[in-house]
Specification:
Elements: H1 10-24, H2 46-57, H3 66-87, H4 93-98, H5 103-115, H6 122-134
Helix pairs in contact: 1-2, 1-3, 1-6, 3-5, 3-6
Length: about 150
């Protein structure tokens, strides 16, 4: 019997990301990160852990319709809630517009930089990701992604 992937929610994505980074460790360093050489067992960045979480709930390619809509919303919501939480407050759109970046690129860069802070630990990274997951309940409707405040103006 083929295994079914779990229903895509931001909390499931983020929980899977935290599980992954706890298992493999946090990657930091001055040399270029080479994701093609990383795989399932090498240390990873917070951004890479989030991407692993996304892949863990992605519907099968043969599936059509609503599961993909739900997945796309969960993907976006998980990135927003995680980057807002890492930032300590909602990320303002002024930031990425001033830098002439897309919202997605800015939020991903924020995650990369947060995890690359000197002295950052795997335990801190996993705890931050789990705390972000708790802000967006697994069974909740897709609404405004959680943040320490409910005013999420992105």
């Amino acid at each position: 019997m083929p295994s079914r992937k779990p229903h895509a929610t931001p909390a499931r994505i983020l929980t899977a990301a935290a599980d992954h980074i706890e298992r493999v460790g946090l990657y930091q360093g001055d040399h270029l990160w080479q994701p093609g050489r990383m795989g399932d067992t090498a240390p990873c960045t917070v951004l890479h852990a989030w991407e692993r979480g996304v892949r863990s709930v992605r519907p099968r390619w043969s599936v059509r319709g609503e599961p993909w809509d739900i997945f796309q919303r969960a993907l976006f919501d998980s990135l927003v809630v995680l980057s807002n939480h890492a930032n300590g407050r909602p990320v303002s759109g002024v930031r990425w517009r001033k830098l002439k970046l897309t919202e997605d690129a800015y939020r991903r860069t924020l995650l990369w930089c947060w995890g690359d802070e000197p002295e950052r630990t795997t335990a801190e990274a996993a705890a931050m990701i789990r705390a972000a997951a708790a802000l967006h309940p697994s069974d909740g409707d897709h609404n405004i992604p959680g943040c320490p405040t409910l005013k999420n103006v992105v």
